[in-house]
Amino acid sequence: MFSVKYFLKGPTVNQQQLEQMRTGKGFIAALDQSGGSTPKALKLYGVDESSYSNEDEMFDVIHAMRSRMVMSPAFTGERVLAAILFEGTMDRSIDGVGSAEYLWSRKQVIAILKVDKGLADEADGVQLMKPMPELDALLAKARGNGIFGTKMRSVIKIANAKGISEVVAQQFAVGRQILAGGLVPIIEPEVDINSPSKKEAEVLLKAALLKELDAQPADQPVMLKLTLPEDDNFYLDLVKHPSVLRVVALSGGYSRDDANTKLSKNNGVIASFSRALTEGLSAQQSDTEFNAALDSAIASIYAASNT
Fold first, then answer.
1. Cβ neighbourhood burial of 223 (10 Å; 0-12, 13-18, 19+)
2. Separation CA 158–CA 156 (nearest Å)
3. Taking Cα atoms as reference points, which of 129, 136, 132, 92 lies closest to residue 111?
4. How far apart are CA 120 and CA 163, in angstroms?
5. CA 81 to chain centre
6. pLDDT for residue 36
7. What's the confidence (pLDDT) of residue 12?
8. 94 and 102 in contact (C-beta within 8 Å)?
9. Average of pLDDT values for 203-228?
10. Distance between CA atoms of 270 and 222, rounded to whole angstroms?
C-alpha cells in the first residue's frame, strides 16, 4: 500500500480519516438514496407515499430515518468506517450539528458525498453518468462541510467492451477532477446483478480498471465500489493494487444474507451496503427494537467485511 504521509498533502485532507479508511476494520454505510430511490426506501421502512405530499416532505422523512440510524448507539466508528451521504443530507443537521461534522465528531465515522447527477440513457450496454457541470463548486462546498471523499455510479448491463471502456474512462476522468479538488473518489461501475453476461462483463471491467490504475499515481489513490463478483476473490488484484485505497462492494439488490455470504468469500473487500443495511428496520419499531435490529445488521455486515 502507499505511504500515507505522501498522499494529498494540504489542509483539505484529514490524515486520521485517511488512515482509518486505509487500515480500519468495518464497512461503509450507504445512506445516499436520492429523489428517484427515496420512495422505495421509505416504503421498505414502513412509510407509504401517502405520508408525505411533496418532495420536501419526503426528504424530511428520509432524513429522520437516516438521523435515527446515525444517532443509534449501534452506529459508531468501531464497526462503521464511513457513511455515504446524499447532498441534501450534507446540507442538513443531525441533533443540531451539521451531518458530516456529527458523523466524525460524535461517532468517528467518515463522511462521503454522492456527487453524480444520475444516469444517462443506456447505450452500448451501459449507462454513463450524466454531466456534472457544477462539480467543482460542489467539491468546494463538500470540503467546507468536512467531507472526506465522494461516490459516483455508472451501470453496466451487458458485457460490451466499448461501453465498459467508456464507463471506466469517464469514472477515472471525473475521479481525477475530484482528487484535484482535494477529496478521495469512489469509482463505482456497477455491474447489474441480473445481467445475462455478468461474469463476462466482470472480466472486461477488471481489465479496464487495471489499465487505468496502472496509469494512476500511487500517491493519488482511488477507492473502488464494485458488484460482488461471480468468482470468489476475482478482484483481489484490485485490492492489492498500490493505487487503490480500498475496494468496497455494493449489495446490488441481493438480500443481506446473500450479500454477506458472497462478501465473506472476497478477501480484503468490505461492504458498502444500502438496502441490505436497512433491511428489517421500520418506522413503527420502538427505539429498543430499532436499535437491536440495526445492531444485528451492522454486526453481520461487519463480520462479512473482515475476511
1. buried
2. 6
3. 92
4. 13
5. 11
6. 75
7. 55
8. yes
9. 97
10. 15
> What are the C-alpha distances in Å from 39 to residues 59, 61, 117?
10, 10, 18
Compute the distance between CA of residue 37 and CA of residue 65 in angstroms, rounded to an integer: 14
pLDDT at 9 over 60: no
Structure confidence at residue 63 as a pLDDT band (50, 70, 90): very high
Kindly state the cell numbers that stand for 98.
Answer: 451539521
CA dihedral 192, 152, 244, 149 (to 10 degrees): -150
Confidence at residue 289, expressed as pLDDT on a 0 to 100 scale: 98
Q: How far is Cα 22 from Cα 245, in angstroms, rounded to an integer?
A: 6
Residues 113 and 150: beta-carbon distance below 8 Å: yes
User: In order of start, what are the domains of the chain with their CATH numbers?
Assistant: 25-114+251-307 (3.20.20.70), 118-249 (3.20.20.70)
Across the range 243-259, mean pLDDT stands at 96
pTM for the predicted model, two decimal places: 0.94
Q: Which three cell numbers stand for residue 249?
A: 462492494
Q: Identify the sign of the CA torsion 200, 202, 203, 208.
A: positive
Whether the Cβ atoms of residue 154 and residue 189 lie closer than 8 Å to each other = yes
User: What is the residue-wise DSSP string for 165-200?
Assistant: HHHHHHHHHHHHHHHHTT-EEEEEEEEPTT-TTHHH
Please check whether residue 30 is in contact with residue 250, taking contact to mean a CB–CB distance below 8 angstroms. Answer: yes
- CA distances to 59, 136, 236 from 266, rounded to whole Å, are 35, 35, 8
Give the active site residues: 188, 225
Q: Which three cell numbers stand for residue 50?
A: 401517502
Which grid cell sits at 190? 456497477
Q: How far is Cα 156 from Cα 160, in angstroms, rounded to an integer?
A: 9
Q: Could you give the 3-state DSSP secondary structure of residue 233?
A: coil
Please give the Cα distance from 59 to 34 (Å, whole number): 9
Average the pLDDT over each of 52-56, 150-154, 280-284 and give the range with the smallest value.
52-56
